[in-house]
Structure formats: structure tokens, C-alpha cells
């Protein structure tokens, strides 16, 4: 595995627990380096690093479901200074009324960006997080390895040594 990107803080400020890691379960192919963090619906979700909101979706109910709901999830997608993007999926329906972020909004590391939910292809409430390669606007790209620090320093994204 390539050296993981550094500079990301915990999107739940340490809450929740890892319910699915990299290269396991549904995390294959494009999403192989994604993580699922089990957490109650309505828990605050924070930006893992500073950047600009490039897309968001907030219209699907928190009733989970099978593969038929694979593209019916609420999310926020942030592009960082180096072009990498972080995505936060299965957000709670209605998060946009509570957090006034739109496409083009700038966020700081550790800033509230939404609330966890159970939208889309999901068997239980959780937050799916991933960091993606730079790519074309509007297209989810392949995930890359990344590490999460306990503290939110707002530092630059970088590759780890080694």
C-alpha cells in the first residue's frame, strides 16, 4: 500500500467506532480505502481538513436499504488545496437546514459540516468517509490511503515518510 496522506482530523471528534475498514465488505474497487464509522443518527460531522465544498446532496431519507439505494445517499464533498477530495456519505436528511454550506463554501478543518444518518445503501447508521484522487468535477474518483490524527491542526495534506 502507498504511504497514506497525512493531515486529516477525526470527522466525529473521536466518537463512534470503526464498523468497516479498508479493503473489506463493500469497500472494494473505487472505495477500497474508505472507512465506515458507526455512530447514532444526528451526531455532528466535522471537516477532516480545510477546503471548498464542491458538491452536496440532502434529499434522501434515513431508512437505509440494499443495493437498490446505492446512489441514493446524502453527502458533502470537499476539495482540498492539493486537489484531493474528502467525501462524507450517509448524512442525515435535512442536514443542510442546520448547516448553511453550499457549493463553493470554504470550510476549516474541524468545522461542523453535517450530521450522521442512514441514507442510501446502508444496513445501520454510520458515516462513510473517504479521500479521493484529484479528478474531474462531479466524478467520484478512486480512493487513496489516508490517516486520521486525533487532533485537528488544520495543517497541510502531505504523504507520510516511508
List keywords for this structure.
single chain; 162 residues; mainly beta; Glucose Permease (Domain IIA); 7-stranded antiparallel beta sheet; 3-stranded mixed beta sheet; 1 helix
Structural write-up:
It is a single chain. The relative contact order is 0.31. The strands form three sheets. A seven-stranded antiparallel β-sheet has the order 2-3-10-7-6-5-8, with no helix packed on it. The protein is built from one helix and twelve strands. The model has no long low-confidence stretch (mean pLDDT 91). The chain has one domain: Glucose Permease (Domain IIA). It is mostly beta strands and 162 residues long. It comes from Acaryochloris thomasi RCC1774.
* Principal-axis shape: globular
Average pLDDT metric? 91
- SSE pattern: EEEEEEEHEEEEE
Q: Tell me the fraction of residues in β-strands, as a range.
A: 25-35%
Count the beta strands.
12
What is the fourth-level CATH superfamily?
Answer: Glucose Permease (Domain IIA)
What order do the strands of the largest sheet run in, or round the barrel if closed? 2-3-10-7-6-5-8
Number of helices: 1
Count of discrete structural domains: 1
Return residue spans where pLDDT drops below 50 for at least 5 consecutive residues: none
Q: What would you call the structural class?
A: mainly beta
- CATH topology, what is it called? Glucose Permease (Domain IIA)
CATH class designation? Mainly Beta
What is the end-to-end distance? Answer: 11 Å
How is the biggest beta sheet arranged? 7 strands, antiparallel
Tell me what the CATH architecture is.
Answer: Distorted Sandwich
Amino acid at each position: 500500500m502507498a504511504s497514506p496522506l497525512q493531515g486529516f482530523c477525526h470527522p466525529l471528534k473521536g466518537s463512534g467506532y470503526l464498523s468497516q475498514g479498508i479493503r473489506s465488505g463493500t469497500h472494494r474497487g473505487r472505495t477500497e480505502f474508505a472507512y465506515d464509522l458507526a455512530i447514532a443518527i444526528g451526531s455532528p460531522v466535522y471537516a477532516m481538513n480545510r477546503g471548498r465544498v464542491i458538491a452536496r446532496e440532502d434529499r434522501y431519507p434515513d431508512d437505509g436499504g440494499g443495493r437498490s439505494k446505492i446512489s441514493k445517499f446524502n453527502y458533502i464533498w470537499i476539495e482540498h488545496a492539493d486537489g484531493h477530495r474528502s467525501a462524507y456519505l450517509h448524512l442525515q436528511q435535512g442536514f443542510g437546514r442546520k448547516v448553511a454550506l453550499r457549493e463553493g463554501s470554504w470550510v476549516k478543518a474541524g468545522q461542523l459540516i453535517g450530521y450522521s444518518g442512514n441514507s442510501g445503501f446502508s444496513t445501520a447508521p454510520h458515516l462513510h468517509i473517504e479521500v479521493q484522487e484529484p479528478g474531474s468535477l462531479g466524478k467520484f474518483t478512486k480512493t487513496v490511503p489516508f490517516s486520521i490524527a486525533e487532533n485537528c491542526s488544520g495543517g497541510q495534506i502531505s504523504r507520510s515518510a516511508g
